[in-house]
Write a structure and sequence with these properties.
Distance between the termini: 32 Å
Structural class: alpha+beta
Shape: globular
Radius of gyration: 19 Å
Helix content: 25-40%
Number of strands: 14
Low-confidence stretches: 1-8
Mean pLDDT: 92
Order of helices and strands: HHHHEHEEEEEHEEEEEEHEEHHH
Number of helices: 10
Strand order of the largest sheet: 12-11-10-9-8-13-14
């Protein structure tokens, strides 16, 4: 994860700078704060979405669920009231298996890139999801059909084709670090850092850019759109933080990543949660998670509401 840093420093210096490593994350934080029986609440996107709806947390509407191969043929009936839709695996990760349809007829389905696929290709994609091609561990999976997010014009120059999202790390109910992930041509329109998306560290109090990286190396402008990444300021920032904080009560997890998108009409919406969020967010922010975690352990009050916890963070 931090291999590139070893050219410049040592593991001891990284720890002294507050960088949280994989082992420390797994054994001292996740193992203590995330009971394994709660993992399905976030690993299964169907369960996550149902929890969000019950908790009053905004999330893209669920159009339908396909659990069995014989149901795949019903896809056109399922989406007939919608001009566009998204197909995604319930147990997928890293954006794998997500298919966005921006318009369609009976045998022609338009992708965000402008390319098209036919009905047989859509059918096969859903079948591949059910067979576990994109799921964690290759297990049999479920296909979610949900509404398309229309991302805000605020980000139109900062992302290539795909929908940008905000990843917020939550510790004991308190948001402690954030970044926005911006898709590129290299990432294939997906907001996945490992596939070449840009990560922009955000100030947790303001939602403004701290620094930006691609492949763990700093940059100032988007590689495709050439937009100045230093000028990003996420609107409705407090609302983003409250959604992330509410997921603490919603799931019972003490440490997780909340992925939030900004819809042009509906505002911030929770896309999904991750019980084992990656650590590259520290590189995007140019700072370690340990310091933020220690601050919460030492100073943060207990038994506050999500809104009160955000007031503490912003104070």
């Amino acid at each position: 994860m931090f291999g590139f840093l070893k050219r410049f420093t040592t593991p001891t210096k990284l720890r002294n700078k507050g960088v949280l490593g994989m082992n420390a994350r797994n054994f001292h934080i996740i193992a203590k704060l995330n009971p394994r029986h709660l993992y399905p609440l976030v690993d299964d996107k169907v369960q996550t979405k149902n929890l969000a709806l019950k908790s009053g947390v905004k999330t893209p509407n669920l159009i339908g669920v396909i659990e069995h191969q014989y149901q795949v043929k019903n896809i056109l009936d399922m989406v007939k009231k919608y001009d566009e839709f998204v197909v995604k695996p319930s147990h997928g990760s890293g954006g794998k298996g997500v298919l966005v349809i921006k318009g369609y007829s009976e045998n022609c389905f338009k992708l965000p890139s402008g390319k098209t696929i036919n009905y047989n290709e859509l059918y096969q994609h859903i079948s591949n999801i059910l067979s576990g091609l994109y799921s964690l561990g290759g297990q049999y999976d479920t296909a979610l059909i949900e509404e398309v997010v229309h991302f805000s014009d605020v980000f139109k120059d900062y992302s290539y084709q795909g929908v940008p999202d905000v990843r917020i790390i939550v510790y004991k109910g308190y948001p402690i670090m954030a970044m926005t992930r911006l898709s590129t041509a290299e990432s294939g329109g997906r907001a996945n850092l490992h596939q070449g998306a840009v990560g922009v560290g955000l100030d947790i109090k303001t939602g403004k850019t701290k620094k930006a990286v691609q492949h763990n190396m700093p940059l100032t402008h988007h590689p495709d759109t050439k937009a100045d990444l230093r000028k990003i300021e996420v609107p409705m920032w407090r609302e983003h933080l409250i959604i992330a904080a509410k997921a603490y009560e919603m799931t019972g997890l003490g440490y997780f990543g909340a992925d939030i998108v900004l819809d042009a009409n509906k505002g911030p919406m929770m896309l999904e949660l991750n019980a084992r969020p990656g650590l590259a967010i520290q590189i995007a922010n140019g700072s370690g998670l340990r310091k933020a975690i220690k601050k919460i352990d030492k100073k943060a009050p207990n038994n506050l509401s999500p809104e009160q916890r955000i007031d503490f963070i912003l104070s």
